[in-house]
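Sample intake sheet
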Amino acid sequence: MLTLSVSNNYGQEALNLTLKGCIQYAEEHNLTLKSGELDVSTAEIQLKQTRLQMAPSVNANASQNFGYSHGSGNLSIGGSYGISAGIDIFNGLSTYNSIRQSQLRLTQAQLQVEQAKNQIRISIIRSYLTILMNQEMADYQREVLNTSRQQVNEGEQKFKVGQILESDYLLLQAQYLSDSVNIENTQIAIENEYVTLRNLLKVEKGQSLTIVVPDSARLSQSMSVPSLEETMDKAMNYLPELKLKNTNVEMAEYDVKIAKSAFYPSLSANAGISTGYNAAYGKTGNGLVGGLYDNLGENIGLNLSIPIYNQSRARNNVKMKNIAVQQAQFQKEDAENQVRQEIEAYHLNVKKAYNNYTLSEMQEAAYYANFKAYTQRFQYGAITAVDLLQQQTNYLNILNNFMQNKYNFLMEKKVLDVYTGQDIDL
């Protein structure tokens, strides 16, 4: 069992994925998306079946009979065989409009898959960037931990020669321990987020997964906000939710056309060929009466059906279908208005996140420089450990705020890219 387990682990390729790679992997393995693809396949089959309604139908039939009469003592045998075909020539374009509806159902199934993909993409973006944020935070925390370690070493020497109080030395030790715990907690947060990302991607158990840290130059190119007009135009032209509303209107309009087909005559054609035989054997039986060729017959015909009066069912059905068209149009307009409001509000949130990011970036640089300056002053004995640790705490608070604002902006920006149909990458 141990050998099999080790072999299996070595047989699985380690995954080292970019953000775009994570999305592509999820689109191939996520079970929700696979279920949606099955719905698309079902719609494709239904479309093929609807198209076949324009083809003729062909049927064959055969029957064989055996009988015995006690009165005459005769055994009778008979059989009939035939093949027939029929085709609808005109039915008020009902079949054609049904085909168009089936095409729209296929489009809807595809749009629903795209809608589900967007939801998965957004979840992956949030999980991926959360990991990146914590990894970058851990790098800063390790730098601070190294500084804390140096402070403890220097504090120990100063305490031994009486340059600082024991309380200052104990504060330095406590801060070093606190910085160590911060790194450990950040690492736990990274591992927890990896669990979330693995579930989104449906990574197999035992297969390793790591994410690619994007190039800082490329990442800086993402730190911009597009105009509201550009964002609105792209969103209105892309969002699957709006396209689904459009197809609902089109399908309702085809329902009207199908209902109107009941007003038109229908014409169909049929043809067939048949034969049979009968035979009687016994006291009064005469044997075979006509063979298959003698009984061979063909037929061909047309069937015309003209609707005259059907208790106004067709007329009322058309009226109800027209009402359904109006309802679908109202729903479409309401959805468009709601999307415009949501995109505008979301765009404002992105701008706000960008402003918070740029401000906190400047603050982080300033507080880091201040922390370094206080570290040097402590080395020369110009300040106490309390003063130093207060500046270190201030810097860590600003650093945490900077990380939160930076990656919050990236998350909001990338989600906006999803809503506008952009290529998702870092």
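Comment: The chain is about 65% helix and 15% strand. Residues 142 and 183 are 7 Å apart (CA to CA).
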